[in-house]
Amino acid sequence: LPVAIRTYSSTVAVEQMGAVEPIDLDSVLVELEKVMLRRALKLSPRNRAQAARLLGISRPRLLRRIVQLGIVDQSPNLIDDDDDDDEDQDDSADNDPNENQEHESR
User: Fold this and answer.
1) Which residues lie closer than 8 Å to 59 by C-beta, 6 or more apart?
2) CB contact at 8 A, 51 and 44
3) How far is it, in rounded angstroms, from Cα 69 to Cα 55?
4) Residue pair 54/44 in contact by the 8 Å Cβ criterion
5) Helices marked H in the chain — which ranges?
6) Which pLDDT tens digit goes with each residue over 35-76?
7) Residues 6+ apart with CB under 8 A from 43
8) What angle in degrees, to the nearest 10, is found between the helix axes of 59-69 and 48-55?
9) What is the pLDDT of residues 81-100, one digit of tens each?
């Protein structure tokens, strides 16, 4: 008998038994993408352009997907220019507000 006929009855029997559970393809693909992004970032620490090349995508697309999927880059010593700005703001927040009042009352 042809394969289509031999397997048709077994496929129908399995479906009738309820043994086939639905596959959420979107969630499977998202998880696979996360695994691949993490692997590329691990293979090229501190070099996202190289990670993008490994994946065959552009660097902006890699960065966008990292943000969209909530992936945290575990690369050691990753330099981020925004951190320096935050420290400057924190220094001004440490000033005692009473000091300003003393200077104003003099």
Assistant:
1) 48, 49, 52
2) yes
3) 16
4) yes
5) 3-17, 25-43, 48-55, 59-69, 81-93, 97-105
6) 999 999 999 999 999 999 999 999 999 999 999 999 986 655
7) 51, 54
8) 90
9) 344 444 444 444 455 555 55
Segments of 1-106 assigned E as strands: none
- C-alpha 67: how far from its chain's center? 6
Classified as helix, coil or strand, 83 is: helix
Tokens 């692997």, residue located: 39
Prediction pTM value: 0.53
- Residues 49 and 43: their CA atoms lie apart, in Å, by 12
Residue 97 structure tokens: 């507000």
Cα diameter, the chain: 103
User: Tokens 């997907």 — which residue?
Assistant: 65
**What are the structure tokens assigned to 56, written together?**
């065959």
